[in-house]
Amino acid sequence: MADIAGLLFPFFGLIFIGYVAGRVTKQPAEALGWLNTFIIYAALPALFFKLVAKTPIDQLARMDFVGLSLLGTYSIFALLFVIGYVIRRNSLADSTIQSFAGSYGNIGYMGPGLALLAFGDRAAVPVALIVCLENATHFITAPALMALAGGDKRSPLKLAGDVTKKVLTHPFILSVIGGFLVALMSWQPPQPVQQLVDYLAQSAAPCALFSMGVTLALRPLKRVPVEISYIVPAKLILHPLLAYIILSSFGSFDPVWISTAVLLAALPTATNVFVIGQQYEVWQERASATILISTVLSVFSVSLVLYVIRAMSL
User: Which residues cross the membrane (predicted)?
Assistant: First the structure.
């Protein structure tokens, strides 16, 4: 367990440093704008491009892996949606954000750095596939359900066009497509270009984790929703357990791929859940509370997941 604590210390330490900086310096939330722009449009795309470009093309075609991973994620989504909409009689919009809070993990900011630290370069491909295709699916699901709830006033044709454009032009998606083409052609970028990509990729995890800590500091805990009592356990415990059961039962995958998917499923609620809630003015404060609480608790739950993975020799 000591080696796992040593592995996670710099990771969660960067989040904590960002949190302290956000509380001490009192900078406004807008001050994070350019850092987040750098992370989303430069650093993380460079990391995904680098990971995919160096991967054998046959490994990049494992859509069965992505499909089973998505099955686990959206099984949790469906379960929480039934609890919120059918059992608790929440609105369609509230139930949608609650379901995302329990199934949409912080795979973009936390996933690549943690998986590569834990499992090495062999985790590169499953990380890139899950992050990009799961985010793309969420980008489609959220506006579609919000349109049904009446929170999105765009016409169906306009909505479909905007969603398609958002998915196809997202930096993560474009970087993976670029990396796929480079891998397909077995092309080696010129050394200066490769050095730039490496330089940007190395900055992705530290910047993303620091930014995440600052974001948590700027969204203080104002109210703790009762839904947290089942949303957080679903995200931190049930989601990774279900991911393991599905991927180990219905596929033939490298154990590192399974371990990577389980680890990504164990990550806390994504900050994008708050962004979606803010966009549609639904469940905003409670989404923020869920992100903060799940992130704090994930220090212990992610440690436990890694311990179980090591103990089972996945």
Answer: 32-53, 65-87, 167-187, 199-218, 230-250, 256-277, 289-309
